[in-house]
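Continuing the batch. This is chain 6 of the set; chains 1 through 5 are on the previous pages. Same settings as before, nothing changed between runs. Recording input and output for traceability.
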Amino acid sequence: MAPRTLRVTVPDIGWIDRLSDLQDVDLTVWDFSDPQPERHIDLAVRPYTVAAAGLETLDPSRLSVIQSQALGYDGVAETLPAGITYCNAVGVHEASTAELAVALLLASQREVDRYAREAGQWNRRFTASLIDRRILLVGTGGIGAELEKRLDGFDAEIVRVATHRREDDRGVVHGNDELASLLPTVDAVVLAVPLTDRTEGMVDDAFLSALPDGAIVVNVSRGKVADTDAIVRQGGRIRFAADVTDPEPLPADHPLWSVPGVLISPHVGGMSSAMQPRIDAIVRAQVKRLLEGREPELVVVRG
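Output for chain 6:
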């Protein structure tokens, strides 16, 4: 019996160059902006996006599996047609996002953004640090675990919060029901939670009011986890650093840009040199599984 040929689409020509050594694979370019190809596709790699828009128009009789390059999949379950399997990119972005979270936290604490704005001036002053600070890590999943590893070396006290209280080899993980009592005791909060009905709007006026003056909130989860209006209202008392915002992209005239103590990056947590080799490895693994007649891995939605 002749070996099966797997039909795979990739979002740009660079993918074809990198995957050209794959055997029994027919590679073509399709970036989801053009109409869906007429022939059947076994595996389609999406461009790097978290948007679910456009998925509802796909024909499941001509497409089996979509491989996302993103970790998040907001809205996919609501729009993906029945018969298509959707896989996310676990293991690709968590470390890079944690790295950026630490960068935002450090830059804010040591006021690196102020020094950048004051280029040409030699204005010295004492700043906050991470040393001896108490940092609340909300979320202990993939990004949270990577954050914990990176924060370990800063001589800071890490307090962890997850959905339910538990203990592990590092000590206590507090439950969400303890969050209100923990907030007044910390110097910084780092948010690394998925966007759910429970977490949407978690950082509201009550959350921020419970924090001590000068505390900082770092958000690398989803923009809607934090109430932007509440952050604007409490700006100056509470500092805020974020890679994600609500709305997103943040309009140029939005008041959040000018709130004192706010540092924003444009949702680039996963956009580092580590991304491409890691997503390539996932696609190669998916191709191998499909050629062997196995189910894909990292499935998050079955339409």
